[in-house]
Design brief:
The complex is a heterodimer of chains A (about 260) and B (about 325).
Chain A: E1 12-23, E2 26-37, E3 41-45, H1 52-59, E4 67-72, E5 75-76, H2 82-87, E6 90-92, H3 105-116, H4 134-143, H5 159-172, E7 177-181, H6 189-202, E8 207-211, H7 215-221, E9 224-229, E10 232-237, H8 239-242, H9 246-253
Parallel strand pairs in A: 3-8, 3-9, 6-7, 7-8
Antiparallel strand pairs in A: 1-2, 1-4, 4-5, 9-10
Chain B: H1 13-32, H2 40-63, H3 71-86, H4 92-114, H5 119-139, E1 156-157, E2 161-162, H6 166-188, H7 191-201, H8 203-208, H9 213-239, H10 249-262, H11 269-283, H12 290-305, H13 309-318
Helix pairs in contact in B: 2-6, 2-9, 2-10, 2-11, 3-4, 3-9, 4-5, 4-9, 6-9, 7-9, 10-11, 10-13
The chains are: A alpha/beta (about 260), B mainly alpha (about 325).
């Protein structure tokens, strides 16, 4: 599937309206309207406690909103369980690297490939039937530069490589849209460059929404940025515009201290 | 539970080959037992418990679910088989089928309720449900309460094998055990087993990959309960009775004990654990009530010294998957 053309009917792959999450009187996310353009890299930024992660968990259905609506490809997914959302091609990553530690890199990717092809309830068959996924799994590992780690248990891989493995596992699902939760969290410079290049490369085929702290990463990668503060959208635009925006500067530097 | 299964080695073709060699050794050893002068009743009993522990291990070692009520499957299948054999006069093979099927249904019902919660809450629900059944069996007329169902006819399996002959019974129990063991082994190394392990390792991630994890956990629970029930049905022929002991919560505790002593999440650990515990009960019987104390001490030292269990430590030492 090639993206990047003009979509009149469904220009936005993911849209929210009035999205709200209230925890006993405290609004972690309030009335957020977000539109993610098909084929773009969209970043969600904001100071600590701005509600980025809550917003993210709402979008991936790991939290239930107390108000508002989420539409994915025109379909209302507000009340849909997370596993079903994943099956629609909207797949998330996690802040803490989410791999299956005692499975090898190859097995990690295979678990994802296996889901789409049924037979996952077959307890009477040998797992050698899964070998038919090996070529595709190797291809995916190769894609993210992990060929040499194919038979290494994930737990023994360096941190940056685990994140790459996580992306390979997500790609195995052949998603349409990926939600990345702080893909660079806890990484050194060298790894950040590698993962950023990887995200840039895969963005040719997928829509990406990411929550990210590292502003230089956001600056280099994103087509559009939404700034959240206190659970609400403060501003939206590209990095060049936002970096001149007084309100954004204030939010990041902390007006309260000035 | 992940802390307990930290050292699981990834499966490789070599690991599978190693395991098949050990399996062949185990089968050969067990096959010659009747000619060694070892009390066959003891080994048969241990085999039933070994299968029970293996079934339990499928759930906790590979699904990360600690059931604290597995005695309910052992006891239910035992009662139903015993009743079917004695009162309905069913032949042994049907008695086993009926008992095992009862355990499967029980697995479906109790699993459906308990997998809705995680961690300690899951364990507590399984315990509560098994206690509920215990009091039901205590009151129900067909179980004969404190007396249990006694003097169960052993009959002829498939009309051919006379189960009242200890040697015949021994091999029937052995075949049953090996078949159950292989089924569990296959389940662990199946496409289903891969998903189950991924759920144990990181459930939110498995969900994010689109797996409806509750369905997999439920299937694991039913499989485990069914095989535990199969062990209970076999045990009826060995013990020739079905009693409240088998549904008591302390039995559930013993299953946990066997599995931990042998090695959680190892293929052969539960078998070794079951033999160790049953041998202790058998050969330390002279100490009376002290058996429990000795068991407790062994349990504590096992957890402190061999956190991975006997087989788990050995596997770690040899860098092999056992």
């Amino acid at each position: 599937m090639a993206y990047g053309g003009i979509y009149l009917a469904d220009e936005f792959i993911l849209e929210t309206s009035g999205l709200t999450k209230e925890f006993a009187g405290f609004f972690a996310v309030r009335d957020v309207a977000l539109k993610v353009r098909r084929g773009s890299i969209h970043a969600l930024i904001g100071p600590n406690g701005a509600g980025k992660t809550t917003c993210f968990n709402l979008l991936t259905k790991f939290l239930k909103p107390t108000g508002g609506q989420i539409r994915y490809k025109g379909q209302d997914i507000t009340a849909m369980p997370p596993a079903d959302v994943a099956r629609l091609g909207l797949v998330r990553s996690f802040q803490i690297s989410a791999v299956f530690p005692h499975l090898t890199a190859l097995e990690n990717v295979r678990v994802a490939l296996q889901r789409q092809h049924g037979s996952s309830f077959d307890f009477w068959r040998s797992k050698s039937v899964l070998d038919r996924f090996n070529p595709r799994a190797h291809e995916l590992l190769n894609d993210v530069g992990l060929s040499e780690f194919a038979n290494t248990p994930a737990v023994e891989m360096p941190y940056g490589r685990k994140r790459a493995l996580e992306i390979a596992t997500t790609l195995a699902l052949d998603p349409e849209m990926m939600l990345l939760d702080e893909p660079m969290a806890g990484m050194g410079h060298e790894d950040i460059d590698k993962i950023a290049a990887l995200i840039k490369r895969i963005s040719a085929k997928y829509t990406i929404l990411m929550v990210e702290h590292n502003l230089s990463v956001v600056a280099n990668l994103s087509d559009i940025i939404t700034v959240l503060t206190r659970g609400q959208v403060l501003a939206e635009g590209n990095y060049a515009d936002l970096s001149k925006d007084e309100r954004v500067k204030e939010a990041y530097l902390g007006a309260g201290h000035g | 539970m992940s802390a307990l299964t930290d050292d699981t080695l990834p499966m490789t073709p070599r690991a599978m080959r190693d395991e098949m060699i050990v399996f062949a050794l185990m089968a050969a050893l067990l096959a010659v037992v009747p000619f060694t002068g070892i009390y066959p009743f003891f080994v048969m009993q241990a085999l039933c418990f070994a299968l029970l522990a293996c079934a339990f291990n499928l759930l906790i070692g590979y699904g990360g679910l600690l059931s604290f009520g597995h005695a309910m499957f052992l006891g239910t299948a035992g009662y139903v088989s015993a009743h079917a054999l004695k009162v309905w006069g069913l032949p042994p093979e049907l008695g086993i089928v009926v008992g095992t099927a009862a355990a499967a249904l029980l697995g479906l019902a109790t699993g459906y309720i308990s997998i809705k919660r995680q961690g300690i809450y899951f364990s507590m629900i399984t315990l509560a449900l098994s206690q509920l059944l215990y009091f039901l069996y205590l009151q129900a007329p067909f179980t004969h309460g404190e007396d249990g169902i006694q003097g169960i006819p052993q009959g002829h399996l498939f009309g051919i094998f006379d189960l009242s002959k200890p040697l015949v019974l021994y091999y029937v129990v052995l075949v049953g055990f090996l078949a159950g063991f292989l089924l569990i082994y296959r389940a662990i190394n199946s496409p289903f087993g891969e998903v189950l392990k991924s759920i144990r390792e990181n459930e939110p991630r498995a969900i994010s990959l689109g797996y409806k994890t509750d369905q997999y956990k439920l299937l694991a629970f039913i499989l485990s309960g069914t095989l535990a029930g199969f062990a209970g049905s076999l045990k009826v022929f060995v013990a020739q009775n079905a009693s409240l002991t088998d549904v008591h919560w302390s039995m559930s505790g013993e299953i946990v004990l066997m599995t931990l002593v042998g090695g959680l999440g190892t293929i052969f650990g539960p078998v070794v654990g079951a033999f160790v515990i049953i041998a202790m009960q058998q050969y330390l019987a002279g100490f009376g009530q002290w058996v429990t104390v000795i068991q407790g001490v062994i349990f504590v030292s096992c957890v402190l010294l061999f956190r991975r269990g006997l087989v788990g430590e050995l596997a770690h030492l040899l860098r092999r998957s056992l």
